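Troubleshooting log. The previous structure file for this entry was overwritten by mistake, so regenerating from the original sequence record. Sequence copied from the archived sheet and checked twice against the printout by T.R.
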Amino acid sequence: MNNDVILRMENISKTFPGVKALDNVQLTVRKATINALMGENGAGKSTLMKILNGIYSADTGQITFQGQPVTIENTQKALELGISMIHQELSPVPHMTVAENIFLGREPLGRFGMIDKRKLYADTKELLSRLEINIKPTMLMKNLSVANTQMVEIAKAISYDSSLIIMDEPTSAITEREVAHLFRMIRALQEKGVAMIYITHKMDEVFQIADDITVLRDGTYVATVRAEDTNRDELISMMVGRELTDMFPKEEAPIKEVVLSVRNLTVKGLIKDVSFDVRRGEIFGLAGLMGAGRTEVMETIFGIRKADSGEISIHGKPVHINSPSDAIKNGLALLTEDRKRTGIMGVLSVRDNMTIASLPSYEKGLFLDGGQIRKVCEAEKGRLDIKTPSMRQLIKNLSGGNQQK
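Regenerated output below.
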């Protein structure tokens, strides 16, 4: 065992119903370094980290931490060992405050075993101040933006004073300024001897922050390389198993008539006088900093929010969209920014999630046309390369990338 190694995961395998998620995977993390864990959607990154964090148990394999073989039965055991995790899918308690979320289950106690609220909020204020996170400890989590919720989750993980922190796509919902802030925090932790496993799809971040890079592909281990000894093309080749001459080849498409027209769309306090046209065959980009109103524009067009003024036209005809149902009837679809909370229904099957927005099109008399549903779902599964053992599989059991597909 090398003295500079804090973690070894060897021959880790994990099977879910009908899916071999991990097959003899290994991972080595050096002390006080950042190991970027990379791979395509469904490669097994999050599953491997959930095993390390005690959320899943491995079918086979060994974990050695700080030079000692360990068995991690649950997240509490992981925390006791000094391993904490920032999850890709945020899971705050919405009706509790920032402070109560950060110290949930380990609140400071005062006389008679009662929670010492004064110390709780003082400790939280000190933690957030030290991390330069400008959020009030007394705010309810439900009132925070996705970006601020992410920052609270980061603060919570750091508050455990762990020797190894797992970060699962921590920058997915924060601004460039907040990313720079996070990287400063990471460097400060690294200087204190903390090691980190950093999961991301963003190449620029990898070369900016990582010391080592580990690549998984289809649930198997590919390689671990020093960041300074590799490059973008080599990493992509390792991730997909082939050389790519063009990651996203440009396809020519004729730009035709206006399909969606938005004029002077306004929601008081959120967006004002937003106007644009989207044409058939066009990919229309809506850019802006976090909080600029991008999400609010889309939610208003889709009927989640009510517009105070403005006009929406589809194929040249003004439409009144008062609900998502109205939007769907008018041929609109929305992929939300928060898949877990507003995108999927985890307790339903893959098939149900794929078809629930278009059930009327499968009606056959008083019943649904099961054969047509199966045909369409199987076709989409193949077209999008969705990795699932069955269309009856609960969607919550799929990887995040496959849920998104």
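The radius of gyration is 24 Å. Archived copy saved in two places this time.
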